[in-house]
Write a structure and sequence with these properties.
Largest sheet: 4 strands, mixed
Number of strands: 13
Radius of gyration: 25 Å
Structural class: alpha+beta
Shape: globular
Distance between the termini: 21 Å
Low-confidence stretches: none
Oligomer: single chain
């Protein structure tokens, strides 16, 4: 691409970027040992910067500023986007761009009193990270194994759940449910850069990635600390870097599985007392399914620890456990368990919302319907509906009908309780007449009605196998012709 061209519009930039990404992806697929020595010009390219900016400004955190106090939304409101892009490109081309420390925000975790550190980069850092990701992602996506699903294009958590369900029906009944201790905070920088260097030979791009890793952290109290390890959660580039590091796990267990060659040889290996393994990973959450005995699953602890050690990572002793599918496990919000089908003597694997996921949605509804934070019923319903829709859309691919009915009735009771507290002395007859529609007694005000989880149709999510196409597959196919 000619980096001297003027700024293109998004309609022009997007096809250009997609075509270049498809070329990178195709070149890697054709040459397993290829290293790229000239990628920095793509990071600086106007088309890549325009597409990167579009993703930054549309991100949910666009209203949040970094340590410089400038948010992407304020740049859009100021009307000087072209100037901001031009300044970023000048700094990149002049090799004077230096990332600022990320602004740390502590957000509550699931356990009381525990917090997760979230790093918020500056607006310019987000732009450059997004451009670097546009360049690196199609290259490493060609190398990633199909057993990982987190933060990858066109892949989702339901694919991981469906894969566990699939292998559970194939005899993989013992499971190592693993948890990595502070994964994003502890990844070894030298090992991560070494893995990137296997594909990227451009020292300018490597230096850019290193500078983001070493940018440092500005704590909420204003104290600065160096980032010796890890890649801060919140950065646009961080999920891709974490996947590059953790793909070592995927490669190790996929190689063990592929070493047996055919299904017949795997079965013969198991008859001789051996076991076969399948890993299913979503970002830093993963399970290893075992077609063998409990002893085989227990022995995996040391093996996994050995793979993680060069990355500077370790398993959490308290949260890593071996279980049987009959006992069940929680993964990505779902409860996965093999049980007798009602009225039969046959066992089936069921996936349904976990108790923790149910407690999460009821907690959110309880918080929204507490006190007098909403001026009208319509305001309350808009916020509650958004939460319910997102939760039901996620869990509709499972045995969730009974849970949806419970959430429906719980929300109905909370909203009617809110109404009775808001209107002191109101009786049920008046409440029904004023606020509940004839259709299932649904709370409503004007055109805004309560979203009813019990109306959501549940269905089984079909495992898509190992043929989920990347965003560049069709374009790469055309280029190959």
């Amino acid at each position: 691409m000619n980096t001297g061209e003027p700024w293109p519009g998004l309609d022009e930039a997007l096809p250009r970027v997609l075509r270049m990404q498809a070329k990178l992806h195709l070149w890697v697929a054709r040459d397993a040992g290829r290293r790229f020595d000239d990628l920095y010009n793509l990071v600086c390219d106007p088309a890549f910067l325009v597409v990167a900016w579009d993703r930054v400004r549309k991100n949910k955190g666009a209203r949040t500023a970094g340590v410089d106090g400038v948010s992407p939304q304020s740049i859009v409101a100021g009307g000087d986007v072209a100037g901001f892009l031009a300044e970023t490109r000048v700094q990149l081309k002049g090799r004077v761009f230096t990332p600022l420390p990320v602004r740390e925000r502590l957000i509550p975790k699931g356990s009381p009193g525990k917090f997760r550190s979230l790093g918020i980069p500056s607006a310019m850092d987000r732009l450059v990270q997004a451009s670097v990701k546009l360049v690196l992602e199609p290259i490493f996506e060609a190398d990633f194994k199909p057993v990982s699903y987190g933060f990858r294009p066109r892949r989702r958590a339901q694919d991981a759940i469906a894969e566990i369900h699939h292998f559970g029906t194939q005899g993989y009944h013992w499971v190592l449910e693993a948890d990595i201790e502070a994964c994003f905070d502890e990844i070894s920088h030298p090992e991560l850069v070494r893995r990137i260097r296997e594909r990227i030979g451009d020292k300018r791009v490597l230096a850019l990635v290193k500078s983001f890793l070493k940018a440092g952290i500005m704590a909420e109290g204003g104290q600065f600390r160096d980032s010796v390890t890890g890649t801060p959660q919140g950065g646009i580039l961080s999920p891709l870097l974490a996947n590059i590091a953790l793909s070592a796990l995927d490669e190790h267990f996929c190689a063990r599985y592929d070493a047996h060659g055919t299904a017949w040889r795997r079965a013969a290996h198991r008859r001789r007392g051996g076991a076969t393994y399948r890993i299913v990973r979503y970002a830093d959450d993963f399970v290893i399914m075992v077609h063998g005995s409990k002893e085989h699953a227990e022995a995996l602890r040391e093996e996994v620890a050995g793979v993680l050690a060069p990355l500077g990572l370790r398993l959490s002793a308290a949260k890593t456990r071996v279980c049987h599918l009959d006992e069940g496990l929680d993964f990505l919000g779902f409860r996965i368990q093999r049980r007798l089908k009602k009225g039969t003597a046959r066992k089936h694997i069921y996936t349904y919302p976990s108790k923790k996921a149910l407690a999460s949605i009821t907690g959110k509804v309880r918080a929204l319907t507490r006190g007098s934070r909403h001026r009208t019923l319509a305001d309350l319903l808009r916020q509650v509906n958004a939460v319910l829709r997102g939760w039901c859309n996620y869990f509709q691919y499972g045995v969730s009908k009974a849970t949806f009915h419970y959430v429906d009735m719980f929300t109905w009771r909370r909203i009617t309780l809110w109404l009775r507290k808001r209107h002191k002395g109101i009786n049920w007859k008046t409440l029904y007449r004023r606020f509940l529609t004839a259709k299932w007694d649904t709370p409503a005000e004007g055109k805004v009605e309560m979203f009813r989880p019990q109306t959501v149709e549940v269905t089984r999510y079909r495992w898509r196998g190992y043929h989920i196409p990347t965003p560049w597959a069709s374009t790469a196919a055309n280029l190959a012709v």
